[in-house]
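for the record, two folds in this file. i put them one after another cuz i was lazy. first one right below, seq on top, structure tokens after. the second one comes after a little note so u can tell where it starts
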Amino acid sequence: MSKVMMLNTTYDTCEQAIDQVFETFPINVSGKRVVLKVNALKGGDPHKYAFTTNYRFLAKVIKKVESLGAKEILVGDSTGTQYYGRSEEVFETSHMKEVAGKYYKNFNKNVTIVKMEQPIKRELAVLKDVLDADVYIALPKMKTHGMARLSGSIKINFGIIAGAQKVWYHYMTVRPERFAEILVEAHLLRKPDLVIMDAITAMEGYGPASNNTHEVGKIIAGVDCPAIDTAISDMIGYTVDDVPTLRICRDRKLGETDISKIEIIGNNKINKQYFLPIEPEATYGCPAFYEEGVGVQYASIEHYRDKVAWRPLIDRQLCTQCQECKKEYLCVKYCPFGALTSSGEGPKVDRDKCHVCCSCMEWCPNHALMMKADPVVIEQLKQYEIDNKYPVFDAKGKRLK
């Protein structure tokens, strides 16, 4: 029987709860290379918002792993939304870089290429530090999500996919069910050895970056990700059929999704009704953001198209002034797909090879490189949408055709 631990606690007192997690789910980290992957979606005040793992929770997990004799500890993630290619900035504004200290690493600077076969065949740049970890501990934030409905322990691995490649999948999969298949495939790339979820102050409403918070007051832990997400779903009012990733896991017999066969250690009660997203028809027209007094803001096809069409734009003046790239351009050296090459005028971009992993942005020491929508790619995508009969929605999320 799978176990899921749900312990009542606070950010000030969660050290004891974390001790209980490691007693219940013992893993050997002594002498090992331990990766702590957080949820570092975007920058924001961690005292006001709950779309990233809280730094106070992270600090106490680090302290515990240190005490267990880990040989090496690495803390990082691949950022999202408008912060693609700006990982260090997110860690700074969320205070996670400060508490991670010497353990912080920009995971986006160390990627490797893997081949995904389902549901869309594609090469991907993914975080090598996570794949190569001796022990991988995932530290997700408890959130709901406009497309996936639940952003839990399965979806934490979507952050293994580097940079704006994540937007590519939002754009190409279109339907929630197909998007959920991507989340499950990413989960299987490297399943966490242990999940400890920050559900002390959780996020509710239309994620991944809603401004709405919910004081759940728990840490949630386990080693079976589908079981963890099933227990959370049951706690907040979803069934397995409501959550596409859990439906897939049930059908493929990945982990435990029968709540009657999951042992809950602790308390699975919440203090008030959770604000749950409705299931959208498609990525476009999906409610992506909600704020009191503002209302629902909808994702648009233009939003996703522009980011899929991103290609590196180089400020030649800043680039030539940079002292760190005198011998070789770091963006060229570390582009995993060979989309950047050296020329007499500086780095040159091959738009057809670029996968939008944003590693070039992470490596540019003088911030001379940014991403901008390529007009040629925009036109190619518009034709792709016509050929594949993409759905069309208005600004209110109503389907037009």
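(here's the note) second protein begins now
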Amino acid sequence: MNNSYKTRFQNFSILLSNPELAKCARKNGNNVFSRKRKLPLKDMLLCCLSKKGLATTFELRNYFKVKGELSMQLSVQGYLQQRKRLNPEIFPYLNREYLMNFYHSDEPVLWKGYLLIAIDGSKAEVPNSKENRETFGNSGNQYSKTGQVRALVSGVYDVLNHFYLDIEIEHISVSEHELAKRNLKHLKEMGIRKPLLAVFDRGYPSLEFIDFLETEGIHYLIRLSSNDYVAEGKQMQSTDETVILKHSSVRLQKIRQKHPERYEQMKKKGETLVRISKATLPSGNELALMTDLLDTITAEELTDLYSQRWEIQKKYHTLKNKMKFESVTGKASVYVYQDFWAQIFVYNMVQDIRNSADKKVAESGRENGKKYLMHMNENMAIGLFKEAMLKIILESEEKKRVKKLEELQEEMERHVLPIRELSGKERRKNISNKNKNNQKNSF
């Protein structure tokens, strides 16, 4: 069983104490974090990572209690002022540094040689303040002109290895296509050499976006809406064939307006070849998929591949409802970026241990003849990690830190659930109480 997550925790602990980290934590060219303060950079970062959605006073109290410095006197105002000087980009940086050890090894699970990723957007609630309304926009309706404040997030999720590789946070009016491009460009900063296969839902199959993916060398599988490329669909002689998408003047005109830099090369190219595969879902609805994968991948495999995209939707649910992703420290926009990116990193650390625990639990289940494959209870894993994280990272001795990690994994393994394959059905809204008896928070 691979326990390389212990190495990643060790490297992260060393990185937190690296004086060079202050350069990444500064913004606007200032020299903050260059002198000794009550709350050094390492402590501030750990406060952000360990937050549980409590009042800031309690977050600080709990942090110093774990550290053994409960007598530390630090005002909430002083802490928040320091946070405003902290560059939010420090957390994506820490996340990339943490994951590089994994993706530069032979550990990643691949799908037919591809690193399988899902990209999708979601709206996330942020504190209702004037600054956030200007930064992220309102999500109004016919009943309210102002509405609630929502940020648009776009995530890249590794479907088979269960890590968030990147998440972008923007104004709610920004195109999901543009955020997806930023997602993919940030992936290149990680230096992943394995070929990428990105799965998208409806809303992404624009001709310009497909050209971007092909230019970047990224393989794709995109679901089509009923009104996408209707003329080409009617000309198909079978349910699975190669289709020519003409770069007509009407299509190019839209691209010329929004993406003039890509217009000329697409005009010169003239057409794009894609494969369209159609199937019927258990609900009776048609599933039309567009891809650049060759026909050595069967239509049935494409359908199964698309169904795995649902993992990113489940993980958005995990972030919002199990990790209190939307519980932001304060009303300034900088706190939104800091807390969102920090919790993505925390999720990956939890999942790193959980991946190792899941392997052990699955092996044990097979040996004991369990009817269903077993895996970790995600909610319990998150709660246990939140409880133990600071004690593990603040441990100065390497052997003791490893011991605490092993104890945490062992405790996680006591809380398992069966993985049941459910038959595909039409999605329907589940009307239930706000406070559910079977879905309570673990912290």
